[in-house]
Amino acid sequence: MRPTSIIWFERLFLLSLGIALLISLLQYDMLLAQVDGQAAFAPLGLGPGFVIGVIAISLLVPLLLWYFIARRASNLAKWILVLLTAAGLLYLDLGAARMWAPAGIMALIVTALQVVAIALLFRADARAWLNPADDDHAAS
Description:
It contains 8 helices and no strands. By secondary structure, the protein is mainly alpha-helical. The two termini are 23 Å apart.
C-alpha cells in the first residue's frame, strides 16, 4: 500500500498539472502569437502544431515522472523531478506586472502546489517507500 505522503504528492502534483494545462489553454492565442512573432522561427514555418507539441511535451515529462514516483516508487524519478523543479524556480518570473496578472497568480499556485508536493516526497513514509533498500540496511 502506498504511504499517505505519496498519495498526497500524487493529488497535489496532478492538480498542479491540471491548472498548468488550463493556463496553457487560456494563453494558447498568446503563445501562438509569440511563436509567429519570432523572426528566427519564421523560416521554419512553426505554428499551431509546434505550440501544441510544446504544451504536450511540457505535460508529458512531468506526467512520466509522476507515474514513476507515485506508481513505481522510483527514487531516480524523484530526484529528476527535484532537479527540474529547482531549475524552473530559477526562471520564475516574479515581476510585479506579470505576477499579479491572473495567469501569473495561477502560475504561482502551480509552482506552490508542485513545491509542496515534492516536499512530501521527503517525509519519512515517502522516503521509506522510495528507498526500500534503506529499510533492509536499517533492519540489519
